[in-house]
Amino acid sequence: MKTAYLGPEGSYSSLAARKLCPTAEYLPRKSFYAAVSCVLACEADCAVLPVENTLQGAVAQNLDLLYASAELFAVKEYLLQIDHRLIFRRGVNLSRIERVFSHEQAILQCGKFLSENLPQAKIVYTDSTAESLSVMQKETDAGIVGAHMAREGYELSAENIADEKKNFTHFLLVKRGEEHLPVHSGRVYFAASCPHEPGALLKMLQILAVYDLNMTKIESRPKKDSPGEYNFFIEFEGDIAANGVRAALSRLQEYTKNFKLLGCY
Ligand SMILES: O=C(O)C(=O)Cc1ccccc1
């Protein structure tokens, strides 16, 4: 099975890909878009995408990608514990580090450490945490934020530098075609917008309540072409094969607009 993800090796997405697809042929790509495009173009069987981080919240770009790609469905999930380290050339003093490279997600998750310990450093965003390593190879006064992994010639901070040590990212494995959805699931994920009427969100959530379904995630995203209107991304506990879940989904489909089943896992 060919699995695309944000690479190169050593990125958090590559670690999640190894957990979700331990025996795959791996296709590291430069962006989440490129990984998804591989699946849509049938060059890969699946892609691994982060959708939420406990410190930073939703990875909005990936929610939008999943919603906008009618053929894409999440079929498996993995919660990766994130252990961010500051990585720098062996022997360099922290006060000499002038630039810190990393993926925006990682930089935002370590904001406190970076401003308290490296106030002099300029932040440079890169395509991924692991990609910043190759950027740094040309620099002596630079550091990166990346996964806790030994790298020859480089030192790692002794501790996790994230604002909160317990830091998790929720990854989804996405495939092309509804036929890949598992027959049974523990959780179901959908997105939809509400009709523009009083109590619309309440009425949508009431459907879950009536069928006794426990919601595990809710996120709103503005509709790109319509200011003031929102798409809701909702995950709940449930077996996709259960009558109650099927009935709830069909009531949701009737009541909401632009309903899409995003996946089940
Ligand atoms: O840049 C990476 O390593 C990624 O896979 C994106 C990312 C960054 C920080 C936390 C989780 C995922």
Descriptive report:
There is one protein chain. With 265 residues, this protein is an alpha/beta fold. It has three domains: 2-82 and 167-180, 3-Layer(aba) Sandwich (D-Maltodextrin-Binding Protein, domain 2), CATH 3.40.190; 84-156, Periplasmic binding protein-like II (D-Maltodextrin-Binding Protein, domain 2), CATH 3.40.190.10; 187-264, Alpha-Beta Plaits (2-Layer Sandwich). It is 26% helix and 35% strand. The protein contains eight helices and 15 strands. It has helices spanning 12-20, 32-40, 60-68, 104-109, 111-117, 131-136, 200-210, 243-255, and strands spanning 2-6, 25-29, 46-53, 57-58, 72-81, 84-89, 99-102, 122-125, 142-147, 154-156, 168-176, 187-193, 215-222, 230-237, 257-264. Strands 1, 2, 3, 4, 5 and 11 form a six-stranded mixed beta sheet that branches. The chain has a five-stranded mixed beta sheet with strand order 8-7-9-6-10. A four-stranded antiparallel beta sheet has the order 13-14-12-15, with helices on both faces. α7 packs antiparallel against α8. The longest helix is centred in the C-terminal third of the chain and has 13 residues, at 243-255. It starts with a strand and ends with a strand. The structure holds 3-phenylpyruvic acid. 3-phenylpyruvic acid binds at residues 6, 11-13, 50, 82, 103, 105-106, 128-130, 169. Residues 6, 11-13, 50, 82, 103, 105-106, 128-130, 169 line the site of 3-phenylpyruvic acid. Residues 189-265 form the ACT domain. InterPro entries: ACT-like_dom_sf, ACT_dom, Preph_deHydtase, Preph_deHydtase_CS. One of its GO terms (biological process) is L-phenylalanine biosynthetic process. Its EC number is 4.2.1.51. Residues 2-176 form the Prephenate dehydratase domain.
